[in-house]
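User: Design a sequence. Structure:
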């Protein structure tokens, strides 16, 4: 059974046990500061949430989405922390309900930090390129597990790599975030070799082979339970709150953005959000709650935009309260590693929330403009990976001597921002390319691919 004393660890990668643990108000606020001021976090302002290359701030980017998720996550964490304290749970003496809120807030704020340009389409494009070119870029020094880091490239694993390798103290602990926050961040506590749909933790990779030892150290510190496989653990219980905050925001906010982008009608969105926005009473049907809200005088008097704001606000509020209660109802299973579901799926609003997800998938995610840009992203990623992998392989053959590579490769290398380079192995060579390309914003990827093809001179 996992214990809260371990799960709330303030230890940090790369720091001595007696090092300062963070700001005086809370040890976890240092995590928040480092994420907030990171260049990787800033780049989310120009990365796809749902609608690629949107302009004018009309709809959410990954940055605004992450900020909204963090707001909900803080409320979820605080709500759970308060209830745990109220029932007398054995917690470290310095821990407050706000600390739970900060841990989940930071996990939420950074949950998409590893996403490549063009979101899930960008992930698929990277995977496809390595599937098509693996024979020419992989070599005999790479293990099958290392190859899977590219063949199943995953933004969650890249995010863990960023937090622990690529910023601030870089190879000496990265952001040096607390173990508790890293545990709450890791939605999929396993590597690509355990990719399985049988368990909620194993659906995707949460770390690469390059960070496997780091995660093992964190998992041991937190007391995470092994899932019976060498590279898969049970989630940190607070990771379920991070997941729920993300689910709440995208199931509600994606519909709001759909109205803004004229992908769906206001009436259709109202139909789906009204049952979430009106208090759930025992025995009430979804239709009864919808009709009850729509009949209220205060609601009828609002403009369409005001109604949309009301629906979004109340739906998020109701889902947040229900999720906190669901966590408390299942706390024992969460600590024992027996919970294998989404928290939203065990709330009274499960059916309504699932209907919102299904409606968005059918009506918003398949718009022609979105599909056109995502299709183009495969070509853009192909250009970038082909050129930069080629340049890095040239540098590898030259044993790191830039003067010995071609003029073309030298210029490509000079455009990469993760220097100095490590060409000690093919695995490290390829990681540096995916680090660079996945770190690009949508427009930076488009512009760089056009420059390389000679179209933007």
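Assistant: Done.
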């Amino acid at each position: 059974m996992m214990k809260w004393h371990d799960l709330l660890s303030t230890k940090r990668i790369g720091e001595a046990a007696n090092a300062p643990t963070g700001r005086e108000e809370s040890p976890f606020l240092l995590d928040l500061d480092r994420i907030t001021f990171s260049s990787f976090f800033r780049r989310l302002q120009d990365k796809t949430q749902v609608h690629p290359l949107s302009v004018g701030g009309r709809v959410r980017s990954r940055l605004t989405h992450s900020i909204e998720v963090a707001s909900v996550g803080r409320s979820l964490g605080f709500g759970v922390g308060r209830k745990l304290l109220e029932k007398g749970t054995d917690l470290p003496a310095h821990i407050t309900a706000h600390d739970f809120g900060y841990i989940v807030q930071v996990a939420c704020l950074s949950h998409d930090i590893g996403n490549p340009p063009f979101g899930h389409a960008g992930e698929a494009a990277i995977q496809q390129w390595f599937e098509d070119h693996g024979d020419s870029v992989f070599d005999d020094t790479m293990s099958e597990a290392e190859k899977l880091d590219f063949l199943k490239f995953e933004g969650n694993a890249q995010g863990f790599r960023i937090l622990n390798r690529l910023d601030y103290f870089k190879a000496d602990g990265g952001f040096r975030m607390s173990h508790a926050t890293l545990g709450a961040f890791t939605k999929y506590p396993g590597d690509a070799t355990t990719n399985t749909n049988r368990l909620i933790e194993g659906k995707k990779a949460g770390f690469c082979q390059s960070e496997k030892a780091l995660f093992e150290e964190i998992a041991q510190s937190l007391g995470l339970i092994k899932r019976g496989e060498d590279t898969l653990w049970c989630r940190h219980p607070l990771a379920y709150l991070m997941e729920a905050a993300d689910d709440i925001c995208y199931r509600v906010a994606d519909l709001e953005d759909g109205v803004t982008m004229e992908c769906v009608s206001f009436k259709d969105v109202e139909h789906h959000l009204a049952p979430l926005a009106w208090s759930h009473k025992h025995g009430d049907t979804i239709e009864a709650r919808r009709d009850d809200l729509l009949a209220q005088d205060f609601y009828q008097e609002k403009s369409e935009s005001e109604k949309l704001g009301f629906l979004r606000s109340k739906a998020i509020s109701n889902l947040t309260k229900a999720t906190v209660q669901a966590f408390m109802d299942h706390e024992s299973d969460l600590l024992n590693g027996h919970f294998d579901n989404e928290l939203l799926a065990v709330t009274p609003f499960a059916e309504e929330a699932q209907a919102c997800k299904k409606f968005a998938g059918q009506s918003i995610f398949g718009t022609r403009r979105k599909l056109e840009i995502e299709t183009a992203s495969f070509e853009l990623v192909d250009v970038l990976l082909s050129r930069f992998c080629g340049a890095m392989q040239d540098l590898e053959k030259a044993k790191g001597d830039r003067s010995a590579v071609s003029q073309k490769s030298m210029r490509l290398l000079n455009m990469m921002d993760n220097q100095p380079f490590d060409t000690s192995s093919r695995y490290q060579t390829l990681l540096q390319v995916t680090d660079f390309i996945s770190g690009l914003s949508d427009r930076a990827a488009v512009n760089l691919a056009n420059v390389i093809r000679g179209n933007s001179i």
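Residues 68 and 249 are 7 Å apart (CA to CA). The chain has a mean pLDDT of 89.
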